[in-house]
Design brief:
This protein is of the alpha/beta class. It folds into two domains: 4-204, Alpha-Beta Complex (Spore Coat Polysaccharide Biosynthesis Protein SpsA, Chain A), CATH 3.90.550.10; 208-294, no CATH class. It has helices at 15-25, 61-74, 93-103, 160-166, 178-188, 222-236, 243-254, 256-262, 267-283, 291-294, and strands at residues 4-10, 31-36, 50-54, 79-84, 87-89, 107-116, 121-123, 127-130, 133-136, 145-148, 157-159, 192-203, 209-212, 215-218. A hairpin with a 4-residue loop joins β6 and β7. The radius of gyration is 18 Å and the shape is globular.
């Protein structure tokens, strides 16, 4: 009998939005674990099956996910479903993911496609390398389960025993590329990752996205650009990660990510933090950005 525990990582959440996320998950999973990267008092219902962990401060998404996974183990969960605080599972999402997982015995994880209701976009998070370029893979009713190179963490369903073989999330990355590194680690051990067309999640890009010439540019705060560039370079240093991905990632952060950083009025701060991220990545620095660098930067992306 499957016991699925959903792990929602929160950081300064919009409470009505978080409540909708919890309500959508209640009938689909056995346990819900909210791990808060902050010191706020409990802000989720004190009900059976809903658990709240406070980390006291922002210790990064990887640390929060790992704390949630450890509690899920104690609750005898057979699977964990990783979720962001602003992601809403459609009815039947978890059932579809579980069915796909059972059909793919080599799967480390499966994940849904997601809809951006604000911009009216059906955005596939499914990515596969084609030569030295990362390409979006579009599933369809005729091809409902597609193999991908990586999945975003939110919506990913993972069997608990996979963590014993692959390991948990890499905490020194703090936030960006945590999910990508884990997927690559799993694939390096012979597992596969799959995207599931019939499993749908709502995820509003909100003011964090600009649609220009049909392309979606996700906009971050300066601090996130620091982590994105620093962590990309940290992964470039890993010999076991494919060279083709490194080239594809370099092209991506040199074009689309950089353009997104320049589309907003904070472009000077963004460029400053990108430079710091590159320097720290080349030095091999990891973990949370030193206080001297983030004291005047808003952590909300």
């Amino acid at each position: 009998m499957e016991q699925i525990a959903a792990i929602i990582v929160s950081y300064k959440p919009v409470l009505p939005q978080l409540a909708r996320s919890i309500a959508a998950l209640r009938p689909q999973v056995a346990e819900i674990i909210v791990v808060n990267n902050g010191n706020e008092p409990r802000f989720v219902p004190e009900e059976a099956g809903i658990h709240f962990l406070s980390l006291g401060e922002n210790r990064g998404i990887a640390k929060a996910q790992n704390e949630g996974i450890e509690l899920a183990e104690q609750l005898n969960a057979s699977h964990v479903l990783l979720m962001d605080q602003d992601s809403i599972a459609d009815d039947g999402m978890v059932v579809c993911l579980l069915a796909a997982l059972k059909d793919k015995p080599d799967a480390a994880c499966v994940g849904p496609r997601y809809m951006d209701d604000q911009h009216g976009l059906d955005i596939t998070p499914f990515v596969r390398l084609s030569g030295i370029l990362s390409k979006r893979i579009h599933s369809s009713p005729d091809d409902p389960v597609v193999e991908v190179d990586q999945l975003i963490a939110s919506g990913s369903l993972i069997p608990m025993d996979i963590f014993q073989r692959v390991g948990k999330m890499r905490e020194d990355l703090f936030i960006d590329y945590v999910d990508i590194e884990w997927c690559f680690r799993a694939r390096n051990l012979g597992y596969r990752c799959y995207g599931v067309h019939d499993a749908v999640m709502r995820h509003s890009l909100g003011n964090r996205a600009i649609v220009l010439l049909g392309l979606v540019f996700t906009i971050h705060g300066p601090i996130r650009y620091y982590y994105r560039y620093r962590n990309a370079i940290l992964l470039f240093r890993e010999k076991w990660i494919r060279s083709s991905w490194k080239v594809a990632c370099f092209i991506y952060i040199s074009t689309k990510v950089l353009v997104g950083a320049l589309l907003v009025k904070e472009r000077f701060q963004n460029l400053k933090m990108i430079f710091r991220g590159v320097v720290d990545g080349l030095k091999g620095a990891s973990g949370k950005i030193p206080e001297r660098q983030d004291s005047n930067i808003n952590f909300v992306s």
